[in-house]
């Protein structure tokens, strides 16, 4: 699957199935899941019966009026069903894209869990947890598993959308592989960790299926509130009919309120707008996570992300670039810095990594050493096994047939290479390696044959704009904590440069777990990322735990979200998406409750003007007639659901503001807007109905 793209809101491929699904959802069993809309469904059934009676001349209102109210009440339910169906359809479209990745492949099943043993072909859907398979260059990994032997380059673009291959190897934090990805070089021995139907891709499909989404705690609490409001209005409206009958009987004049008008009043006053869109908001929140290439195991996790107030962030790859840049050449005794820079640049000419490019640039900047064309040279590429790269250069004197062997790589790798040639590794270089490591930088050693030339210091760079993002989080009331294995001095310097609120230096797994528990004991909701088995305890403890797809199976099982891009910075985006979902739900709830005020002025005078003529003074909109007023309010009540579907699916625009500022903004835009907007809309509908001679 390529990186998820946002589908058009009303894609024709989604609209037709959504319309059919809206009709299927008219069954009482489906409506019962939404109590507020179930009340509307009962009212629609009742007015349908009244419309049939009115058509035979036995109704308490004109047949045309009752039929018009009935039709628009059914439209109200259909529009609410459509909002949910279109949101679920978008989720199913994403699931179908994932389902297209799942295919049966052949697997080489090993009888003994080590390379070189005899194997037999099996279909991938026959593999079971614990089976061991071997996957070679060009072959597809048949199922989720962990590498137990070998090192290989793997193409995971089908899952992550990123074209760059990744290294997967046994025994580290990058030993997890996903079924459906492809080995590009070398080989891997993989132990299968999931039975058919339980693989990561299967769980992804189930999680993005909107129909399988369970209600979150906040959603349940809001539903209870909406049901309580509905019950209050239901009892209030039910009591109005006897009062109307008594008033007409006592006064000896006037007309009692009709049951159709009472049903219309009830539907307009109960919170149908938010009730009709509530499920769509939740489904769309999950869908937006998927568009960000994040799989949430539940809507609860997405919702919790919106309530997080403490973020624990790893330094490398999140706060710093992770791709370290060359910052200094540290020569060995008896070696000039220029000689070291020259050899380092030669060893890096074919190195296309950011680190290799930075070495070439640093040598050019410091000593004006420029890239050269080497004719009788053979470049040695970096491999996961050797952890070195370099160049072999033939000397100019053809009579000597000698060669110059330059190597650049990890200190231990170069040390072993030098010692294999019978030379000793200089103690001063070893001290420089340790000093660079203590500063939180990465040391690379350069050797020319048996001669060790010195150390290149690679320094991690704080990401551009990260300080501004942390400042925005701080304005939202979110505390940022950097976690690093660096010493305290290095950690303090990077924390100050990045603008985080706090840091944990020399962090061990138990230190992370204790830190999370301490914050939770103070009442905070904590989010963190991790990719290793040693991160699993802390991930299991965190309220929002984002595991990297490149990480171990233990980390992915402990987390409640999986980032397919394996980008630790994604945690910030996840929190923003969670907050956007909560903001959307709050905004539409505010609007739904507020627009009842306008409907009150439109429908109440019209309903009771026959019983209490004095209420005509409340008709501030000067609507054409009582029947037109009631019908206009019902039509507006239905159409506003359709009008708000794009907002429910896209979400309210996220702004990094504090809770108090967001509340004021919410009340101003959606509260005041909810009060004001219905007045001109209902008036316009009334004028249209009057012009058409409908009411």
Characterize the structure shown:
Strands 1, 2, 3, 4, 5, 6, 7 and 8 form an 8-stranded antiparallel beta sheet that branches. Strand 20, helix 19 and strand 21 (561-563) form a beta-alpha-beta unit. The longest helix has 37 residues, at 63-99. The chain starts with 11 loop residues before the first helix and ends with a helix. Helix content is 51%, strand content 16%. The radius of gyration is 34 Å and the shape is elongated. The chain is an alpha+beta fold and 695 residues long. It has 24 helices and 21 strands.
Topology:
Layout: H1 12-24, H2 28-31, H3 35-55, H4 63-99, E1 106-110, E2 119-123, E3 132-136, E4 145-149, E5 151-155, H5 157-160, E6 166-169, E7 176-177, E8 182-192, H6 200-208, H7 217-251, H8 259-269, H9 272-291, E9 294-296, H10 299-307, E10 310-314, E11 325-331, H11 337-348, H12 354-367, E12 377-380, E13 388-394, E14 403-410, H13 411-420, H14 427-438, E15 442-448, E16 451-459, H15 466-475, E17 479-483, H16 488-498, E18 502-504, H17 509-521, E19 526-530, H18 536-541, E20 544-548, H19 553-558, E21 561-563, H20 570-594, H21 596-608, H22 626-650, H23 659-676, H24 678-692
Parallel strand pairs: 10-17, 10-19, 17-18, 19-20, 20-21
Antiparallel strand pairs: 1-2, 1-3, 3-8, 4-7, 4-8, 5-6, 5-8, 9-21, 11-16, 12-13, 13-14, 14-15, 15-16
Helix pairs in contact: 1-4, 3-4, 3-8, 4-6, 4-9, 4-22, 7-8, 8-21, 8-22, 9-20, 9-22, 10-20, 11-12, 20-23, 21-22, 22-24
How much strand content do the residues show?
Answer: 15-25%
Number of strands: 21
First-residue to last-residue Cα separation? 54 Å
Q: What class do helices, strands and sheet pairing give?
A: alpha+beta
Major beta-sheet overview: 8 strands, antiparallel
Mean pLDDT: 81
Low-confidence stretches: 1-5, 397-401
Return Rg in Å: 34 Å
Helix content: 40-55%
